[in-house]
User: What shape does this take?
Amino acid sequence: MPRAVDEPPGDAKSERPRRRLPSRCGCLVLLACWGALGCRDSAATPALTFSASALGVEADVVRRQLTRYQEQHPEVRVELRVTPDAADQRHQLYVQWLNARAAEPDVLQLDTIWTAEFAAAGWIRPLDPFAPDVDDFFPAAVAANRWRGVLYALPWFVDAGVLYWRTDLLDTAPGSLAELRASARRMTEAGSTRFGLVWQGARYEGLVTVFLEHLGAFGGGILDAGGRVIVDEPAAVGALTFMRDAIWADGFVPASVLTWQEEQVRFAFQNGQAAFMRNWPYAWALLQDPSRSRVAGRVAVAPFPAGDGGHPTAALGGAELAISAHSAHPRLAWELVAFLAAPEQMLERARLAAQLPARRSLYDNPALALALPMPADEARRVLEAAIPRPVTPVYSELSEILQVRLHRALSRQQEPAQALHDAAVEIRALVERSGLSPEDDNRGTVRP
Amino acid sequence: MTGPTSPLERAEARLALILVAPALGVILLVALVPVAATLWEALHRHDLRLPWLGRPFIGVGNFAEALGDPRFRVAILHTVGFASVSVPLELALGLALALTMHSAVRLRTIVRVAALLPWAIPTVVAALVWRFMFDAQAGVLNASLRGAGLLGPTFDWFVDPLAAWVPIIAADVWKTTPFVAVLLLAGLQTIDHALYEAAGVDGASSTRQFLTITLPLLRPALIVAGAFRALDALRLFDLAYVVTGGGPGTATEPLSLFAFTALLQRLRFGYGSALSVTVFLLTFAFALVCVRMLGRSLTEERS
Assistant: This one.
């Protein structure tokens, strides 16, 4: 109503009703017309809803890409459903929606550890009927999205745990866990840094990823290829003992890490308090910003090194795109998924949000080298070594069991061997309760 | 009393029933139905994450699982232990505070308002503040204790299974002592001043006066305050959730937090409901005991 805005503020009171009336009527008529148009419009063009985390720069990228898709596809209406950014909360919300068979959202942003759960529950649609070409994606990311041999989600962006190290204190990255321990101890004893190594040790999902990397370094695992629980085997005990001793015996990891998540770990490293840090690639850009980082220009990234009997391992993280089983427009939803997972969108996401592309070929692309704050070959090296967390529908509960037991062992309430034994017993009971038979194969089956 | 006899009385009784019905209905709807629904849910295996299992009726299976779960038994111990440490502390400090407020002659209002302030702060905010104070890196407490040479440089309250209780209990005592104090202050004000004057004339010392006049006459108020606090302490959730998250491991996990984890994090609706019912029964049983104690103390007083 431009007229109302133009009114002089002084004598408006007496005149307002008379002046406003016609414009108000006009507005109503306009609204009615627009509403009618809108109704007809929405009846003709199907609406696609997409739920994603939408905070800060990530939200900008999503909105920008959805707008572009909308321009190319006027036949659909795309809407963004903003969901909580905290993974646990988003998961809860999804489970509630999908249990209630809500038709919205059509396309879901999943965390990599949810795909098997949602697939086994019948909440997301198999993607194989759309014949997706997955050769270009990192194999670990695709493996995490398969359940009983069927693909249920497309990798959107990937994440992998890496070791940050200080180039001003060391000449090369440690080649083994023993080397890492030796130099971390040397640094703390000489007082070059307050802490040697910092990692995510709070009782949450991050602790499991850190443990997974130590496990790989010692040649252990949580579940074997046949889906059997092997987390109580000697390699795993060795890995957990190494982690505990790092805190209490060798003293190069501060006990406070047991309350730290990604950001507290980053603050410690960023303030120059630690020689090494295990974290995700997101920290790179923040560390290189001299206005807030004391270690800008003195940091490099390497794979987390191997110990005895293992190999360098990175825990795979990242986000996936899946289609709700209750979607009324699966075909259209698939087109949106394919668009969002296309190379151009991934490159843009890397450039604007520093999220790593899930397509291997992009790492040869000079545009990525420019776009990515982290050297492309380093990033690829880490991602090639990435392994998914156990691909099982009961992962969330399995992880909760592990979190408690790991945390007990690391806070010296239990011996590592006992803690892992208890964890294994509980995980086996969980698998039993869930009706999934572990004997079949790593794809697992649901008993009739 | 005999039942209504005349038609008029019967009609009045009917009218009374009709008039009361809406209120009874509301109470039923908001109090009994949810409890009954939770109880019903607790008798089923219902796991939102395992929808292929359906929602079969399993009787007391969830309760049996809880009894066999060491984490559950330890959570009960934590809950009861927390209540038996924090409530006596709050009563003792609350009494001291109440006596101070009672005897304050000048600035009475200001003293009372100041004492009540912690009670007015939302629990989660208070919990966060205490968490920060005990933080090993940036916390005020560790810095000063380290400075005084009382703490090692690497000591972290939240990593030690016993020490992690200190910030939780401290926060609870700090926050709820004023509430206890106000209840006790009301009790103090009902005590006839003539009793003290008489005792003074007889030459009783102030300690003696406190022990033989104040404490016995304050007993009902003490029981009420203690019951309120104990009931609250048995439902301990928000402080543990914010201050330690139940850690390290599950060393500070009370029953309500365990039930919350099972229900809303693991999405095991059946099992979580069984745990919630247990919390409810525990609190309910304790409330009954308190009401009894209170009733007895009141009748004693009268006789």
Confidence is low (pLDDT under 50) at residues 1-42, 438-448 of chain A. Chain A has 17 helices and 15 strands. The two ends of chain A are 64 Å apart (CA to CA).
